[in-house]
Each structure stands twice: as C-alpha cells, then as structure tokens.
Amino acid sequence: MIPYTAPMTARRIPVIDLADAFSPERSRREALAWEIHKISRDVGFFYIVNHGVPQSLVEGQFDWARRFFALPAASKAAIDMRGSPSGYGYECMGAQALDEGSPADLKEGFQFGFDIAHDHAYVQRGLLRYGHHRWPQDLPGFEAHSRRYYEAVRALSHRLLSVIALSLEMPEDFFEPVLETPIATQRMLHYPPQPDGARNNQIGAGAHTDWGLVTILAQDAIGGLEVCNAEGQWVSAPPIKDSFVVNIGDLLQRWSNDLYHSNPHRVLNAGTVPRYSLPFFQDGDQAAVVACLPTCCSAERPPRYAPCTIGEYLDMKVRQTFGVVAVD
Ligand SMILES: O=C(O)CCC(=O)C(=O)O
Ligand SMILES: [Fe+2]
C-alpha cells in the first residue's frame, strides 16, 4: 500500500501539441516523437491538445456520464459488471481498490469496449474485456453516443502509438497488428466529494499505475488527479481545456525495458461537487506477446522482464484490484 500524503509543489505535467502527429512530413512526426520520448522517460504523463477529437463529442460524453450515474440504483445494479464474463457494465462503489491493500476507492464506474462479433473465439471463450456488453435499458441514445466517442478516441490511440513507436526507433506501424482485436476499454467514472470521515488512505482512486499501453483521459473541470513524478513528488494534473491527459502504461514500460515510465497516479476529489472522468485504456490484443524491443536492450541493459502475453498481465492486475474490499 502506498500511504497517502499531500502533493508537493513540483514540476508541471507538460502539454504537447499533437498536430504534427497528423503531418504528412516525416521530419515533423519525428520531432514530435522525440518530444514524447523525453517525457516518457521522465514523468510518463503529458497533456495533448490539437488531438483531433471534437470537443462537442467529449462534452456530450460527459453529459451522458452524468445521466448514467443519476439512474436509479436498481437500473445500475441490473447491469453490474460481475454479471459479465468480460467485466463490462456497472462498477458499484467499493468494487475496486486500485492501490492494492488500501480501502476501496471512492468511485463508481461504467465500462465498455471493443465492438466485436459475438461468435468471435475470444468472446465465446469468455475472455476478459471481449464482448458481453451490458448497457442500461432505460437510457436510450447512451450506447450510440458512447460508441461514437469510443471510435474517435480509439483512432487517436492508434495515432499516438504510431508516434510512440517512432519515438522508440521502431517502424511507425509496429503496434498496428497488436491493435486489430484489442482490449481497449472506455471507463466512465464518478467520484463524489471526499467525505470528511473517510478511512485512512481511502480516496477517489488509490495510487496505481495503469496496466496497458497508453491511457487517454478526459477529465471535467473539477480537478483532483495527481501524478507521482520521477523524484517521487506528487504533482497536480489540473484540468486544461480541450485537452486529454495521456500516460504510459505498464505494458509499454515492459516493452521498452523500463525506458519509458508507467507512473503512479491517484485521484482525490477535494471539491464540494461530484467529479466525472472518462479514461480510455488501449491495452492491445490479449494474445500479443510483450517482449523487450530490440531498440531497448543491449549487452549493458539486458531484458528485465520475461516475455508475457497482454492477457496474462491484465488478468493478474484485475484479480489483484477487484473484489478485495467493500465500502461500508
Ligand atoms: O479519474 C481520473 O482522473 C483517473 C482515473 C484513473 O487513473 C484510472 O481509472 O486508471
Ligand atoms: Fe489510472
């Protein structure tokens, strides 16, 4: 368990203008890749602006999040994620402790993912995060809008990972095969204000790293996200208009042989009104093998991790963080 301490004044999370990721000129894409390289080796977190996802789509998804969480408890309970082999659907308050060993997070959520044919072998086998979606019956329009938002952000994750591949001196399309049938999860989260009587170390989202390749997070105007920087200081990541927060996940850290950092972060809603956020996790195909990239190892820096599949790694993390503790 990572004890909660107040964030210290420290460096800011950098803002990257992503426009050059869409440039036809390779030299511009390379210059951007180098910027991302430097940041990914240090703090592993950055904001992106000019990312191509229309702001109206983001705002619309926040509106749906507010409407979803305002549904009667029974409507949400009817689509509890524990009733789905993939783990999609409603995550009730107290279902997860992101900081292993801490009390449960003070958040509730909803998650859905890649639109995959029901007869696909992954779905038939009941694998984590493939199919078996659970949408509420009493919220018409929610699924359609969420799908539009999802596809825009998923496309952005492809673009980002092409720049990230370049930043690791790999071909720009290196990750494409890994992204064809992905575990790519959109979560919607609702954090009530931090209660006065919260248990020791119980906050909105306990300190954790993200598990996959990259996370693309939209947060509302309330604030509360904090990131642990390279010196171990907690830095606030306040909302910046029209931006997403991007961070490197554990699988990319493993793939890059610890060159890139999957940094711990956490959430505490210190405000007086609810906070909503929309994190999208691009984790890649469950069957893909994560093994040190040739550009990230040498005689002096041999591979630090045994190869593993993406599915194996994520299964382990889900087992560690869900169903451990309940909120009282
Ligand atoms: O809500 C946020 O700002 C971050 C959520 C998060 O870190 C997560 O779900 O992994
Ligand atoms: Fe996270």
Automatic annotation (TrEMBL):
It is an enzyme of class 1 (oxidoreductase). It catalyses: 2-oxoglutarate + O2 + 2 H(+) = ethene + 3 CO2 + H2O; L-arginine + 2-oxoglutarate + O2 = guanidine + L-glutamate 5-semialdehyde + succinate + CO2. Pathway: Alkene biosynthesis; ethylene biosynthesis via 2-oxoglutarate. The keyword Metal-binding applies. InterPro entries: DIOX_N, IPNS-like_FE2OG_OXY, IPNS-like_sf, Iron_ascorbate_oxido_reductase, Oxoglu/Fe-dep_dioxygenase_dom. Keywords: Ethylene biosynthesis, Iron, Metal-binding, Oxidoreductase. Residues 181-284 form the Fe2OG dioxygenase domain. The keyword Nucleotide-binding does not apply. Its cofactor is Fe(2+). Belongs to the iron/ascorbate-dependent oxidoreductase family. This is 2-oxoglutarate-dependent ethylene/succinate-forming enzyme.
